[in-house]
Structures are given as C-alpha cells and as structure tokens.
Amino acid sequence: MTPFNFPARTLATVFVASALAFSSASCSNTADTAATDTTDMATTDAGAMDTAPATDMNEDMGAADTSGKNLAENAMAVPQMSTLATALKASGLADKATSGGPFTVFAPTNEAFDALPAGALDDLLKPENQAKLASILTYHVVSGSVMAADLKDGQEVTTVDGKKLKVSISGSTVMINGATVIKADVKSNNGVTHVINQVLMPQ
C-alpha cells in the first residue's frame, strides 16, 4: 500500500467524505500501515457485527449492493450518516471521497456526533474552523481497504495523516479507540466503511 499524502489544502478534499461513504474495490486489498505489520492478522467474525446496528441502518447499508458507488455517494445515501456528509462538505474533503482511495473509513453516526459536547459540532462547522474539522475527519481514515477480518486485537493502524488508532477485539465486537463498530465491511468502489458509535478525537 502506498501512503496517501495530503497537502494542507488538499486535506479538505480527502476525508471522511470518502471516509464515511463506504468502499472497497477489493476485499483482498489490505491496508499496510506505516508502523503496523498486518501479515499475521487474526480473523474476526464480521458477520455477527452486521446484525448489531438498528434495523433501518441494516436496510440502508446491508440489503443493497453498495460496491458500485463511491464512498461519498454511499454515505450521502444513508440517513444516519447525514451529519458526516455535512461535515465532509464543510471540511472541503467531499471531493476526495468520490475519486481518491482506496480508503478505509471509520464513520461516526449522527448519534455519535450528537454525543459531542453542546455546541462543539456547530463550532467545528464554522468556516474559520475548516482545518480543525478536516484534521478530525482524517483521523477516521486509513489508506487502503481494511476489512474487519484483517484486524486483530491490540493492533495499531495508521491514519492518512500519520496518527495511530488502536484496535480492540472481544468475541465479535471490534472497537477502534474505544468506539464500537456497529456495521462492518460496507464496500464502495474506492474503499470500505466501518460505521462506529463515537467520534474519534485526535490527541
């Protein structure tokens, strides 16, 4: 895997826009992070996670074949991802989600954004905070297509901007920095999305 470098201005076009859409042109194209050896990955029961989300989310993301659309298109098609779609546009990253990649996106739901401190989201969506918002969104994105079965307990994966995310696995439950994956392996033609129940905040 070749790391994806984002110049300061391009950062606005790269994220979760892609991130929260969903994709993976190929299940076998595993993300190779800078400081993580993924050659000895344990297999996780990803199928069990497909039943964890609310029924309407399963209908939106599980019943239909999403692999023919890009990350941005898939994200915008799911009502539970509308806040993420709004954030992607405000950060300037939406364009990258349509053609860049492949990316693995850990996409927070609307409820995850609602759980942020009062006023935090409104503040991040202001034009003057575009760079800060882009930094938070890119913290949810890893280069390459990483399926749930490619992750192992205790693993660290590297985000597109060089930060680390910690993977924890217990049974069929996968967590990323403490956020639970509630819908795994949503494929797009330029990556894959794993829906999570919390917004990840870089240190």
Shape: globular
**Series of secondary-structure elements, N-terminal to C-terminal:** HHHHHHEHHHEEEEEE
How many strands? 7
Class per helix and strand makeup: alpha+beta
Polypeptide structure, described:
The chain is of the alpha+beta class and 203 residues long. The protein has a single domain, classed as FAS1 domain. The chain is built from 9 helices and 7 strands, in the order ααααααβαααββββββ. The two termini are 26 Å apart.
Describe this structure in a few short sentences:
The chain has 203 residues and is α+β, with helices and mostly antiparallel strands. Helices cover 29% and strands 19% of the residues. Helix 5 (82-91) packs across helix 9 (130-138).
Secondary-structure blueprint of this entry?
Layout: H1 16-19, H2 46-49, H3 55-63, H4 71-76, H5 82-91, H6 94-99, E1 103-108, H7 110-114, H8 120-124, H9 130-138, E2 141-143, E3 156-158, E4 164-170, E5 173-176, E6 179-188, E7 191-196
Helix pairs in contact: 5-9
Identify the notable features of this structure and list them briefly:
alpha+beta, FAS1_domain, FAS1 domain, 203 residues, 9 helices, 7-stranded mixed β-sheet, disordered N terminus
